[in-house]
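Is this the right way to post structure tokens for a design question? Let me know if I should format differently. Anyway, here goes:
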């Protein structure tokens, strides 16, 4: 037992009967028992469930997983995957929730975070993307267990589950991987823009066997993807959105809200391979400039190759927090697409010091977004339009785009 655990409050493996309350950020609901908060997975607001405590550090809360539903919500449905249960896969949180109710769940989380962290009250709609709730995940990272079998990790665990398939992946995408043997590490499976399946091991070894149905995209291992009327060839491990519809949707919204002036200056922070830079470059034209800041050199190399016909796009390799203060001039607009942790106070302060009139903020974590909106407010920026997309059905994750403006 950890030295920080209060043994008097250790409810691990205890079975509780709980009345489930509201949803919470992180894919669970809130319940209370004997004066403590219990975060319950695989439950729905208003339900009465029997749950097993699976994590308790002895503080004011513990975590539990519903194992029996005593009074069900009308939004409850049968999960399409047998691993979406207590003790099962950690990839999906909401398979037991009807798809429309999943979007309502996420809207409530985003609304609550904006109110709590930014003091803003908004009616939020989480928008459905084309393609339905299953078969959308074009990139899957599998772990390899001690026996060389690829699988998915259990919830909040390093244990590898030997799953037979994953309904979030396109049908057949994992057929050439599951059931095979691999060296230690991880296996990335990517379905490209043409539907071909590519597999890469972190050890650098290709999967064994006859390779039937596999396409490794040539000797360089690159994967073709398309969005915003362009094609990129991505090196193994370079980031691209996993939902096939999302890159075009984001490019459209970012372009509409950025509206960079002809001949103007735009920055694309955490720019990856330059999806948004391509849109901004068309807006500013050959007499303008777009500066992409990205820490992953492989992504920058891929972006330079894809956008070689746009000389107005310049690239800076480095961490945004280190590069930002040295960028010259005053940008007309900044697009920022940070990782899950968000921008944070230091980056917001440095960005605001450059004085852009507008910041288009792409966010995958509602709490980080709301916190940063509050930081921007301290510099006179106000939150304009905000859109949220259900880019990760069956999970608690979503993608948001927000426009922050400062009066000139």
């Amino acid at each position: 037992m950890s030295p920080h655990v209060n043994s008097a409050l250790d409810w691990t493996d205890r079975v509780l009967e709980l009345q489930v309350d509201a949803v919470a950020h992180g894919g669970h609901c809130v319940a209370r028992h004997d004066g403590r908060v219990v975060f319950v997975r695989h439950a729905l607001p208003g339900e009465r469930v029997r749950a097993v405590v699976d994590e308790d550090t002895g503080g004011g809360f513990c975590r539990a997983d519903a194992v029996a539903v005593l009074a069900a919500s009308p939004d409850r449905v049968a999960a399409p995957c047998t691993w979406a249960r207590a003790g099962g896969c950690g990839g999906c949180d909401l398979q037991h929730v009807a798809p429309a109710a999943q979007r309502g769940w996420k809207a409530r989380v985003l609304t609550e975070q904006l109110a709590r962290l930014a003091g803003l009250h908004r009616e939020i709609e989480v928008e459905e993307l084309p393609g339905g709730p299953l078969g959308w995940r074009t990139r899957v990272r599998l772990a390899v267990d001690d026996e060389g079998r690829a699988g998915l990790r259990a919830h909040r665990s390093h244990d590898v589950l030997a799953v037979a398939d994953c309904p979030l992946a396109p049908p057949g995408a994992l057929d050439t991987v599951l059931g095979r043997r691999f060296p230690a590490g991880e296996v990335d499976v990517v379905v490209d823009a043409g539907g071909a399946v590519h597999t890469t091991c972190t050890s650098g070894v290709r999967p064994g066997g006859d390779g039937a149905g596999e396409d490794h995209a040539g000797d360089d291992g690159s994967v073709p993807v398309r969005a915003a009327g362009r094609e990129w060839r991505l090196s193994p491990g370079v980031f691209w959105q996993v939902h096939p519809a999302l890159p075009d949707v984001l490019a459209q919204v970012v372009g509409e809200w950025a509206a960079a002036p002809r001949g103007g200056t735009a920055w694309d922070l955490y720019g990856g391979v330059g999806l948004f830079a391509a849109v901004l470059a068309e807006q500013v034209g050959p007499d303008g400039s777009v500066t992409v800041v990205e820490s992953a050199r492989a992504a920058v190399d891929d972006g330079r190759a894809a956008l070689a016909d746009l000389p107005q796009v310049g690239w800076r390799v480095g961490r945004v927090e280190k590069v930002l203060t040295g960028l010259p001039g005053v940008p007309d607009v900044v697009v920022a697409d940070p990782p899950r942790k968000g921008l944070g106070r230091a980056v917001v302060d440095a960005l605001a010091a450059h004085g852009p009139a507008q910041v288009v903020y792409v966010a995958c974590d509602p709490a980080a977004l709301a916190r940063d909106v509050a930081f921007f407010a301290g510099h006179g920026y106000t939150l304009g339009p905000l859109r949220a997309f259900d880019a990760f059905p069956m999970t608690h994750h979503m993608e948001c785009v927000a426009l922050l403006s400062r009066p000139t």
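Format looks fine. Someone answered above. Worth noting: The longest helix spans residues 99-118. The helical segments are 99-118, 246-258, 275-284, 297-306, 320-323, 344-354, 366-377.
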